[in-house]
Amino acid sequence: MKKGQVTIRDIALKLDISISTVSRALRGMDEVKPETKKAVMEMAQKMNYEPNLIAQSLRSNRTNTLGIIVPDLVPHFFAANISGMQELAAKRNYNVMICQSNESYETEIKNVHTLVSSRVDGLLISLSRETKNYDHLHSIYARGIPLVFFDRVCEEIDTTKVIVDDHDGAFKGTEHLIQQGCRRIAHLSGPEKLAISKNRLRGYLDALRENNIEADENLIRHSTLTEEDIVQQVNSLMNLPNPPDAIFAINDPAAIQAMLILKEKGIKIPGQVAIVGFTNEPASALIEPSLTTLSQPTYQMGQIAARHALEQIKNSDSYTPQTIILKTQLIVRNSSRRI
Amino acid sequence: MKKGQVTIRDIALKLDISISTVSRALRGMDEVKPETKKAVMEMAQKMNYEPNLIAQSLRSNRTNTLGIIVPDLVPHFFAANISGMQELAAKRNYNVMICQSNESYETEIKNVHTLVSSRVDGLLISLSRETKNYDHLHSIYARGIPLVFFDRVCEEIDTTKVIVDDHDGAFKGTEHLIQQGCRRIAHLSGPEKLAISKNRLRGYLDALRENNIEADENLIRHSTLTEEDIVQQVNSLMNLPNPPDAIFAINDPAAIQAMLILKEKGIKIPGQVAIVGFTNEPASALIEPSLTTLSQPTYQMGQIAARHALEQIKNSDSYTPQTIILKTQLIVRNSSRRI
DNA sequence: TTGAAAGCGCTACCAT
DNA sequence: ATGGTAGCGCTTTCAA
Q1: Would you say B174 and B207 are in contact if contact means Cβ atoms under 8 Å apart?
Q2: Which residues on chain B are in Cβ contact (under 8 Å) with A288?
Q3: pLDDT over 90 (residue B1)
Q4: Is the distance from CB of B339 to CB of B178 less than 8 angstroms?
């Protein structure tokens, strides 16, 4: 007897009324007689009816689903973002479909196709590191699918972007080190052309300049951020004739790496070298010494991004794209506290 | 002119052929003339046609989507699991729809309804802490929707479960402490009725027994695992007339918490009290001293769970439910190394 | 207050 | 090799 899921037709048959009436009753329209409504509701309950969202979607041309593409959903930053998105979406009766690009441009393109084919009502994306060509995103935009970038954004598309104020964060982190008495502050940066690297580097440089400290080329290191490369960069820094008294790292993993290397060398933190990271990973509060860092409002970031996507879905005409810049917060811990 | 997405009908109209032919051509059926096929393909490309998975799903009664329910997708354990699932699903041309129960029974029920309504082809779930009633899951099972439990499973439903060998892990962790010379080993456990608590407690007790160490009721603490409760339990343990020389904690966060408390008290780790955790969180390798723990194959766990769900979807008749028990691996670090 | 029927985009069956 | 058509489950006119 099991022929798959129960449909409104099954209910109609049982009650010997029309499909239309069942449909109306189920959605509580008040043009249907109360007792009919009651009978339908009870029968639906009894038969374990579950509405078929697929059919509804086909009809309404809306899936109530947000597509999300991230490079990798494991890192805390992305996990928290997605969590915020899912949470808010659920509140508004939306689902989320999630893809990982694995930092691959090709995969990211595939993901876009998948989500477009799934007819998601909106798309939230944080770009892969490889992505240099934006045709697949232009195509989303051209289709009129609400599109929101978060964290790793594409400047050349006029749509809502939610980002962290990297410049401001780097500025605050660097200035904090200066206030602690550091004067030779190194910057362990990431790949040179990455937006994030550029912005944090600028914040670092501006903080130095505003405090009348001359920047030293030797103290600025662009790293691939692999384990080996960090080892090499830190060693090279400490072997300078005039080594740094502080390191401002582009992110917490790099900062933690650096700390481990320094500790192995017997260098006192923060006494000899103070450290500041960026992103506030869960581990950072727990290591020894605890790491001073800039916390990003990750969960909130996801919520805001999702809210904007939904906003845009709702008012596709009147909606105006915005760039939302979230401030980071300096969390002072022991790796930098000298005073 | 923009009337939403392009359909096969649009292509058929342009080419002045029938819808059926377009459909066939698009799917590369060889009963269609090569030149027609080529024309269709080119036109589809040119018009930026994207197949409508919703329509396909309605027709085929398959969505190519797996539903996933976790208590919270932020913790590394769940994030890695989901990542494994998504990865494998993508490989087999499946999508994932993800819900968070927030450890709430009510929300979990809502999630189940959502995913059933979305007609996911299979469901992967790790139960909320609150869930004691399993009717919503029985209903899934009764509907014939492939169901796989991972980590937090429901024993009373005969379906595939992927779990970690908690007993074995706890046994290995405890035995390791014994080998390090500890004799009064406390166990910081979780809520008493939780399966995970029970299994790890049994492993702990069995290790003691096999090594002829008498278990001491005072050293076994069931905690709610909130910050305050852990503080209280650890303090209480250390205030015993005969305090423990080791703590085996139910998970890494609890172990790390305990370590912080002990360090504040000036108690040497591992000298006075050795510590072993469970789960191998990323933070655990980085704290001081680094935490000995049992690593779980999280990513692999997700892959296996997804593989079984897909297997079951494919061969719904011949498939036999299994319980897959994954072994943990003891990772010895400094928090327990006494010899 | 209810019913009949069209149609969302697609596939598959039956013709030709 | 191609076209016509029914139907997946639902909503929404239009009629009654």
Answers
A1: yes
A2: 287-288
A3: no
A4: no
Query: Which parts of chain B are beta strand (E)?
Result: 65-70, 95-100, 122-125, 147-150, 160-164, 185-189, 220-222, 246-249, 274-276, 293-295, 323-326, 329-331
pLDDT digits (tens, 9 = 90+) for B69-90: 999 999 999 999 999 999 999 9
Q: What is the pLDDT of residue B282?
A: 87
B208/chain A closest Cα distance in angstroms: 30
CA distance B199 to B165: 8
Helices (H), ranges, chain A: 8-15, 19-26, 34-46, 53-60, 76-91, 105-117, 135-142, 166-179, 195-210, 227-238, 252-264, 298-314
Q: How far apart are CA B335 and CA A80, in angstroms?
A: 29
| Contact assignment for A117 to B65 by CB distance below 8 Å | no
Question: What is the structure's pLDDT at A51?
Answer: 98
Spell out the residues 6+ positions from residue B266 whose beta carbon is closer than 8 angstroms to its own.
none
* Chain D: bases < 7 Å from a protein Cβ: 1-5, 7-13
Residue A124 sits at φ, ψ, to 5 deg, of -115, 130
Q: What letter represents residue B326's amino acid?
A: L
Residues of A in contact with B144 (CB under 8 A): 2
Q: Measure CB to CB from residue B114 to each of A54, A95, A114 and give the nearest one.
A: A95
Nucleotide with minimal C1' distance from the CA of A61 is C8
Q: What is d(CA B199, CA B192) in angstroms, rounded to the nearest whole number? A: 10
Facing B79 at nearest CB: one of A54, A74, A286: A74
Residue percentage of chain B with pLDDT more than 90: 93
The answer on pLDDT for B2 being more than 50 is: no
CB contact (8 A) between residue B119 and residue A95:
no
Residues of chain A where predicted confidence (pLDDT) is lower than 70: 1-3
Give the DSSP letter string of A238-277.
HTSSS--SEEEESSHHHHHHHHHHHHHTT--TTTTSEEE-
CA distances in angstroms from B95 to A66, A110, A114, B4, B306, listed in the order given: 13, 12, 8, 23, 11
The pTM for the full model equals 0.93
Q: What is the largest CA-CA distance in chain A?
A: 92
Q: Report how far residue A279's alpha carbon sits from residue A77's, in angstroms, rounded to the nearest whole number.
A: 8
Question: What are the start-end ranges of the H helices in B191-330?
Answer: 195-210, 227-238, 252-264, 298-314
pLDDT in tens, A266-304: 999 999 999 999 999 988 988 889 999 999 999 999 999
CA of residue A299 relative to chain centroid, distance: 8
